[in-house]
Amino acid sequence: MKKTIALLIAALMLVMLPAVPSAEENGTTVRVLLETQGEENLTITVKGTYSVGDTSFTDGTVTASVNNGTITLKHSEKGMLVSTTGTARIVRAEADKDEANLTLFNKGRKATLTYLGDLVFCYEDSVMKVINYVGMREYLYGVVSGEVTDSSNEQVLKTEAICAKGFALAEISARSKFSFDVYDSTTSQLYYGYKDSDKNVIKAVDEVWQNTLLYNGKPLKTYYCTANGGQVITPKIHWGGSDNDGAYFYGYDPFDLEGSKVNAVLTVNGASPESLPDKVYSYFLTLAAESLGEKVEKIEAIVSLYGVYDPDNPNGTSRYPKDLAPHAKSYITMNVKTKAGEYKQAKASFTLSNLKSSAGITASGTVLFSVRTKIQEWEIAFGEKKGHQVGLSHRGAGVMAKKGYSYVDILKFYYRGADLYDADGKLIPSSADFHFEYTGSDPAETPTPSIEPSATPEPSATPEASDTPAPSETPEPSESPEPSETPEPSETPEPSETPEPSETPEPSETPEPSETPEPSETPEPSATPEPSDTPEPSDTPEPSDTPEPSESPKPSETPEPSESPDPSESPEPSTSPDPSEPPALLPGDVDGENGITKADALMVIRYCVGLETLTEEQKTRADINKDGKVDQLDAAAILRMITVKPQWV
């Protein structure tokens, strides 16, 4: 026992010593398979000093070839460098990215690209594979340049860097027994090596690459896409089964809808139906007449409007929520005045695709749904998605950034259950206010988040909340003064994490570099779980019989973040913690100081040797491995959490 105590105390003392800079100042090594597509001869242009084995060389060119499984490397001046049936590696001697790099033609990317780090050659699966061994920071230069563009908003660049890192950490963890961690294509996430001209990308990555998004104390595998069409879904909905589902937001994304002219949003004010476009009003008027079996003169009010994903299962399932888009059928209740002068209530069903065609609504895409945003007010969305709709939407992030949200806020909107930490394990909180509003007890509707911009210095105006309660649907934020730019957190480190399928669906479905992620038809990169064989929700057929009104309505613009609640309206519960309640404590935070420190590890060590007593709550927080007991393993786990930098960076 004394020996065990001594070892534990020694370990604790080691973490108390000043941190020694890592030899790999660019962080965890990422092994990227370059898509050379089985080329048997490659010419690599060398800038700076490199070595192969004991032979060092500066500048010039290296020729790599394969013959009957034998890899040969030759230098333009030094001659033969190596000939082997094993692995050959060109090692960078100079760490400065602008002083040493390697350039070659990447057949898959259809471009001559420059790479930092080392190049490894091996004969595997009957082809010569070329793998770029590169530090995390330098890897992120290439992914951010590939998934978005250098001209993107600074907050979007930073958001993409954090997402790309989370996905990479998951792949590294899952593929340790393989020869590489990630592909350079949308099978993982687009990677374009190093572009010294992408100054904005480099600056953004340098500022945030050490920060990491954590869920349940581990790096989150961050899936992302180009566009979700107005509704964010979770990994479970898309791929069927995920232990990270709680980290992801599910619901209405007004920012994504606002980000493209191919989307359309129709506002339905139930108290004044006459404000509807003529063709939409005529469409609903005909529905009421058919429902009652008599002529209807006027719609006095629209009482209810909602849709369901599966009419045969209107309550939804654990995988497919009832309000999942596209809505296969929608239902409307109207108070009307008949031609006979009687006041009646008409109930009818219809499809949004039929409404779209009959009313001449100009929009493309298959993400069709309605959401309640205010008391007796709804938004009907006709959105176009690009990708799997899981996690961050590049299009939505761009709109949020323009409205003044910081990258921390954007991450919090899309990954609602995860938290961002810096290199020292310190929480970087979002100052944005995300909450749900409720519309009442209508069982067909669910809560929808209303978003207010983060509080920023000298806000141009105090946002006012819209008057809309609603459990399932997210109210589209109504106009509010644009927040001034939110201050951004300083650099911070990152964790490592998650398993990854060997064939991950492409993270972000985005086109090649110039346009955001390049997914052609692959599940979007930025993180894509391995799709199970579960079919994705497909578009539901739509009935075609409905009267065709005459004028085409003009899609209303998506309102900006919702205004703060009117005291006269019904109260709305907030998803953010009540300031009067103590904040939730992290696993490992044994002393309850809202942070994981050496003191927490020492408390566990003292408890293990009988020098400390812990409350039940403290034991729960101390039981890191969740085996039902607090012991030396938990103390060691807390020590690792404190010295997280080598893992997460």
Distance between the termini: 35 Å
Shape: globular
Major β-sheet profile? 7 strands, mixed
How many DSSP-defined strands?
31
Strand order of the largest sheet: 4-3-8-11-12-1-13
Approximately how much helix is present in the residues? 10-25%
Counting DSSP H or I runs of 4 or more residues, the number of helices is 14
Mean pLDDT score? 79
Q: What percent of residues are in strands?
A: 15-25%
- Poorly predicted regions: 9-24, 436-583
Radius of gyration: 28 Å
The structural class is alpha+beta
Layout of strands and helices, then pairs:
Blueprint: H1 2-16, E1 29-33, E2 41-47, E3 49-52, E4 55-58, E5 61-67, E6 70-75, E7 79-84, E8 87-92, E9 101-106, E10 111-115, E11 118-124, E12 127-135, H2 136-147, H3 154-174, E13 182-183, H4 199-208, E14 212-215, E15 218-219, E16 224-225, E17 227-228, E18 231-232, H5 235-239, E19 251-252, H6 254-258, E20 264-269, H7 278-292, E21 296-308, E22 329-338, E23 343-350, H8 352-358, E24 367-374, E25 377-383, E26 385-386, E27 392-393, H9 394-402, H10 407-414, E28 419-421, E29 427-428, E30 433-437, E31 448-452, H11 598-608, H12 616-622, H13 632-642, H14 645-648
